């Protein structure tokens, strides 16, 4: 979800919540490693859980989808010859909805 989507949902539940509260909490949760921030040029930041998974980015509509692929940590470490902390696999494609609409 984006900060705006979270704000609108929380506003529906609690009319007194402010956008600053949402951003402050998202920043704190990101800093604490409880959530991750996905930044993509030209798109609002999205926030996601920290379970190991990868992401599909539609280059037409901007939709982000989760995908779970084989963990590549050991392959990357073997290729580099050293340990890594983490990796972020982002796959850019045209989503099925945009393909159906002929947008590619």
Structure description:
The chain has helices spanning 3-13, 19-31, 73-80, 96-100, and strands at residues 36-38, 46-48, 54-58, 64-67, 90-93. With 104 residues, it is of the alpha+beta class. The protein has two domains: 1-50, Arc Repressor Mutant, subunit A; 51-104, Dna Ligase, domain 1 (2-Layer Sandwich). The strands form two sheets. A three-stranded mixed beta sheet has the order 4-3-5, with no helix packed on it. Strand 3 (54-58) and strand 4 form a beta hairpin. Helix 1 (3-13) crosses helix 2 (19-31). The mean pLDDT is 93.
Low-confidence stretches: none
Q: Structural class, from helix and strand content?
A: alpha+beta
Q: What would the principal axes of the Cα set say about the shape?
A: flat
For the biggest sheet, the summary is:
3 strands, mixed
In the CATH hierarchy, the architecture of the largest domain is 2-Layer Sandwich
Helices and strands, in N-to-C order? HHEEEEHEH
The residue fraction in helices comes out at 25-40%
Over all CA atoms, what is the radius of gyration? Answer: 17 Å
Number of domains: 2
Q: Span from first to last CA?
A: 24 Å
Please report the number of helical segments. Answer: 4
Strand residue content: 15-25%
Mean pLDDT level? 93
* CATH domain topology of the largest domain: Dna Ligase, domain 1
Strand line-up in the sheet with most strands: 4-3-5
Number of DSSP strands?
5
Any idea of the CATH class of the largest domain? Alpha Beta
The CATH homology group name of the largest domain: Ferric-uptake regulator, C-terminal dimerisarion domain
């Amino acid at each position: 979800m984006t900060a705006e989507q979270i704000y609108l949902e929380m506003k529906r539940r609690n009319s007194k919540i402010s956008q600053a509260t949402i951003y402050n909490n998202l920043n704190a949760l990101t800093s604490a490693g409880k959530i991750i921030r996905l930044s993509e040029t030209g798109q609002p930041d999205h926030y996601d859980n920290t379970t190991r998974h990868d992401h599909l980015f539609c280059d037409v509509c901007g939709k982000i989808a989760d995908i779970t692929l084989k963990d590549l940590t050991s392959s990357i470490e073997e290729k580099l010859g050293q340990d890594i902390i983490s990796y972020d696999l982002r796959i850019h494609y045209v989503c099925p909805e945009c393909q159906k609409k002929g947008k590619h």
